[in-house]
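Curious: can you check?
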Amino acid sequence: MNANITIASTFIVIELLTGGCATLAPEVKDLTSVEPQTSFFLTDKIWYVTPDGRFEQGLLPGEYVSYKENALGVFFRGPSPTFWHKHSNSKEILFHDGGVWFPKRPDAKPRIYTDLSGTSYTADSVDAIVNNPSIRGQAGQANVMAGAVGGAIGTAIVTSMANASSGEMAFTPEFSDASFIEKISEAESKKVERVTRAEK
């Protein structure tokens, strides 16, 4: 396997998945720390492809830890990097730090969020990142800026941005794949109270 991995100099924001209007992201304000913290694990990567086959997005395996919340939902920070996305017209796979936001309203959908102060990578395969211990877990080593690159990515959108203790965050569009949502929700439903090393 050709594991060609580089740190991306520019954060590529996500293109509109559905071809329609973006659903407004929840407001990120009045955030407080989650006490006690909980976490869940993804034991394997999960992903989906848009119905038109143009776009792939997925979450990487690892621990997802609750760290901020407000009246609307809870932010779970994922491993670094957290997720990837790829356009069918590009061989390049883009990886970013962030996590998953879970709503407190039962009729709302979870969302991936990106941490714009984290590290972005490019690689030619997802497994090149998953299986590389020198890459996994290295959060915040490069300050990345939001932007769009090339026509292959298409129209870039950011539906919400806000300042939090981890830096600027932006939501990706809502998931359009029911199976993907089910897998994320099932993993989150198995969350447990997180025990720190000091408590062991």
